[in-house]
Amino acid sequence: MKPTFPAIDGAPLADKRSATATFHGVTLCDDYAWLRAENWQEAMREPDKLPEDIKAYLQAENAYYDAAMADTATLQETLIAEMRGRIKEDDSSVPRKHGPYAYQWRYAEGAEHPVYLRTPRDGGDETVLFDANAEAATHDYFEYGDIEVSPGHSLMTWAADTNGSEFYSLHIRDLATGQDSDYQIADVGSVAWADNTTLFYSKVDENHRPTKVFRHVLGTDPASDVLVYEEKDPRYGLGVGRSRSGAFIGIYTGMNDENEVWIIPTETPEAAPKLIEPRSAGIQYSLEEQGDHFLIRTNADDAVDFKIVKAPIASPSRENWVDVLPHEPGRMIVSMSAHKDWMIWVERANALPRICYLAKGQPVTSHQVISFDEEAYALGADPSPEYDTNAFRFTYSSPTTPGQVFDFDLETGVRTLRKTTEIPSGHDPADYVTRRIMAPSHDGAAVPVTILHHKDTAIDGSAPCLLYGYGSYGMSMPASFSANRLSLVDRGFVYAIAHIRGGEEKGRAWYEDAKFGKKVNSFHDFIAAAEALIAAHYTSKGQIVIQGGSAGGLLVGSVVNMRPDLLAGMIGDVPFVDVLNTILDDTLPLTPGEWSQWGNPIESKDAFADIKGYSPYDNVTAQDYPAMLVTAGVSDPRVTYWEPAKWVAKLRVTKTDDNILLLRTNMTSGHFGKSGRFAALEDAARSYAFALKAVGKA
Predict the structure, then answer these.
(1) Catalytic annotation on 550?
(2) Which of 426, 450, 487, 694 has the highest count of CB atoms within 10 angstroms of its CB?
(3) Which residue intervals define the domain Peptidase S9 prolyl oligopeptidase catalytic in the entry (predicted)?
């Protein structure tokens, strides 16, 4: 069925102001380079500073979007009401015991943001520590960062971003009085307390790269804070953290596929950082302290899917690493945590996770497993912040099963269900079906596809489908529950997630097989997923809407160039589509660190050719495209607003169809859209209304 978009005249046409650049003997001509503001860093912090010609173009696109989608206003209101009806408004977390207190968050009915509070460990009166609603009251946008309580539980740090640029200001609060210090620390990335008067924090530079770690003593001028560590390699970012036992501060510096760790004893916070193991090409490691040794998760020694080793705290370098959990190809060790008497790890094989645990000193063959039986599901480890404990917490959900929180006794093996996410408007898992199929890709690789549909949806090819994917940086897409998706599924959609190469669903090799010149495997896998859904009669050609965001926007942007015939629509959320120009520009915040994923096209002719071959902006073709919705954010430091804006401008004058092409730019926020649990529903409602229109169901 043809989309039901109204005929809108006067689609915005951006000026063509040609700019050229030559690399490796190839001259690139970019008619829309001018959409990148020279003062983009200033505009990121203060969107009103965007140059008038750029602002006018983005606002014209927004007006065009509003006109094209005006007839969905009632539908969007209905979708928002449905999605809000699935949210328990007066929700709260399961209390978490830590030291003398139990901590939790709670939402009041109607509140956009939570309140953080605590009670005495074994019960008693509540004390509100942080009310995000009160802090957000004077801001159009408000996103709080990490909340960290001091070791003595008397102080707390909290951070906030008030424009979506992800530049956070750090505040220090006295929990006895509830008052914040009379100073703030600007542009903080991460925070770790050493003791009750000393904290460490990472600071981002003007390019939004976390490059420095400082030590701060409470009550002193932040301008006098001591620089503890500076990362000179622009490919690397860094962060700080405190070990579970409280014995060490860790400085974690690295890029996507390579890192190193430095430690500082909290007993001597003025000590110089000590390096665990120097950085080495392609080697990753992370560590947890356990008594006189560290437990280290690493891919060293060709442990492609990672292994766990231990090393003495006194001499933790690589020559002293001894295997605890050896490498097993195809079993990806996703994460690891350690307590005084236990080691816990999450592993994944064939796109399904499980949690394993082992008592200290026991042979690895005696480890125990926590697993579930659904065809597709998601597990999350949520270990206790306490070091000396037998308690462990984990979460479970599936596309049909709302999130559950379990407490687990590592000694007895008893699991206790502490919370099931409540759906106030009602939800019966038996009304829905979850399936996992395997899609054969162009080279024979079997791509897992998770499917959700209503039990009454006919599987005869007549159903529309929303197909979602990401496929970059080794990030795996969990088969988890989403209450919002039910608004599509209840309207007859099949919802599918393609677990394509570029993630780690099938181990590290699944990720490595979509890097550098192999990136095209991600796109072929996604196309294969669409074709498998058609072959299995879950949907049909021309009934599929694809969606992806950020690097997932690169995915859907490339696929819409390659196989538009399969599609009814495409939704690109802040899509990374101007890949070649971005990766050629080493002044952009994330570019140097990206070279480990895509290659360095500045130095490598092959990398230049590879990226040029698939970059969505560079491969826009005079062909028919489906209906398309593209979003952007002026304050976005991750995918800068001009990437989607340039792409839409080029598509508008190149494509040969009359299908709708929409760009909606959030003029006051960034990569993650609106803040607040209800405000964010507006973004989901827009996307779903567009998907429904694209298949003629709005």
Answers:
(1) yes
(2) 694
(3) 480-697
